Protein: Ribose-5-phosphate isomerase A
Organism: Nitrococcus mobilis Nb-231
Amino acid sequence: MASDQQKKAAAEAALSHLQHANIVGIGTGSTVNFFIDALTSIKGSIDAVVSSSEASTERLRRHGFEVRELNAVDEIPVYVDGADEINRYLQMIKGGGGALTREKIIAAVSRRFICIADASKRVDVLGGFPLPVEVIPMARSYVAREMVKLGGWPALREGFATDNGNLILDVRNLQIMEPSHMEQTINNIPGVVTVGIFALRPADMLLLGTDQGVETLTAA
Ligand SMILES: O=C(CO)[C@H](O)[C@H](O)COP(=O)(O)O
């Protein structure tokens, strides 16, 4: 099955895990785009959505969803988002689309985080995918040097600014054996807005599109 078909199958499977949530948190990326499209079939049962990026907001509005500011909601029952890599503990690397900061904030507010992904995203050790780090522009070189001290090879994502007006360093060559520790270490570097490791708040459930169908995984 092509990866797009796997993404679509995982996205559609997420519909049956919303459990009548009145507010749904929406991630960013091509898998989430399939989810947004599928969500239209139950639009009537959702009061509003909270979006993690301008791109998702635009798609949601086009489909007629009410997009609510995060500050206007107290709690989000369920958040659905993709991942660039995910391990057996449902810890992830995210940020391939550059929306990692807003994604991490919405994940923190949400009661349940459902990750939807194609089979290629499932890994034993995080770090094969270049780790995105959102940085304040004036700290770019300093943070890059700090990444080198950690053994990484940082590269500026050329011609890209996040929805928050910041830059992204994509860091290769990191074998992330202790994701929570690495998440804290990198987040503590002055100038880092967010690192794309989601380990301190992992997903609660993974819906993985595979050639054999959609597998449902909870943390090992
Ligand atoms: O973290 C993300 C965006 O910041 C995405 O969830 C991640 O990049 C996966 O994207 P896709 O569904 O297109 O493979």
Remarks:
- The longest strand covers residues 110-118.
- The domain at 3-123+200-217 is CATH 3.40.50.1360 (Rossmann fold).
- The radius of gyration is 17 Å.
- The chain has a mean pLDDT of 97.
